Structure to design on (59 residues):
């Protein structure tokens, strides 16, 4: 696991204990981004396409 991913997971855990949903969501988003950065390029493109589609559906 990358150092950035581990730090993001720890920050997420700390935010959860603080009772701050905004902090927890931000920390989880950072952890997800760190995980995606670790994946092969083809998988990242698929994930980005799915994320874009989900954003379109949200609005």
């Amino acid at each position: 696991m990358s150092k950035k991913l581990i730090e993001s997971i720890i920050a997420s855990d700390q935010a959860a204990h603080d009772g701050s949903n905004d902090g927890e969501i931000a920390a989880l988003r950072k952890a997800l981004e760190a995980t995606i950065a670790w994946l092969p390029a083809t998988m990242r493109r698929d994930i980005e396409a799915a994320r874009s589609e989900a954003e379109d559906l949200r609005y």
